[in-house]
């Protein structure tokens, strides 16, 4: 594949575009919003220094059109990043389905919508629709969740998995479609308890961020929750952990908080983040995040297990 269409050029779309360009692909981007092209080119230019482009890669291989049909007409792969609303997806995918060649995969970056729902907008070729959900920022975070729908062809899944792997991603295939897929559901479970702990006054927003970034988050970035748990069991591994710590863990589950995002709780969370940042602006925070992620990914690549 040489030419990728990026449909929708907000935060996720711009990051995808930069990533594809850095891997030597031609990118044609489309977004109907006024000023979208200028913003996209500025975003790609800002991202470019954080990347390690392959030989021949260049931001100059980016083209833009406001017409989504024109963007996908000659594309070999389509990455859609439109608003997370069913009616918008339906209208957009109807255009993409008509304009793209029948064999071209239409992958959506949707963070929560089901692929079967999105595919309803494709009356001609629903079999080529799949979720290809990245994590922000896609130009740095390797994970992509590939989720087929009821009518998705096996060849579509195989093509998407191979494509993402070929541009340096770590794709996983889901065996069932669920709202929020896998990683967002795991995050949502943690957020539920984090919000509850703040609401109950157990810890501050900053305390909880510290607890994760200087505690389990470090281990999860290396091995994930299951292998981390396995190592905590010593020679007996995860079997020992489940036998001896399973019952108290179940008791904790029963005690986890159930929260509603009331106006008061939202205001508390926002105020907590403002206090934690203490005058650090967004650009500085993003630069810090990207620098640490880049160093972490480089360390993981150097030390990855066979």
TrEMBL record:
Keyword Oxidoreductase: yes
Keywords, alphabetical: Oxidoreductase
SUPFAM superfamilies registered for this protein in UniProt: 6-phosphogluconate dehydrogenase C-terminal domain-like, NAD(P)-binding Rossmann-fold domains
UniProt pathway: Lipid metabolism; butanoate metabolism
InterPro entries the UniProt entry points to: 3-OHacyl-CoA_DH_NAD-bd, 3HC_DH_C, 6-PGluconate_DH-like_C_sf, 6PGD_dom2, NAD(P)-bd_dom_sf
Residue runs in coiled coils: none
The 3-hydroxyacyl-CoA dehydrogenase C-terminal domain, residue ranges: 180-248
Start and end residues of each 3-hydroxyacyl-CoA dehydrogenase NAD binding domain: 4-175
Family affiliation: Belongs to the 3-hydroxyacyl-CoA dehydrogenase family.
Protein's name according to its UniProt entry: 3-hydroxyacyl-CoA dehydrogenase
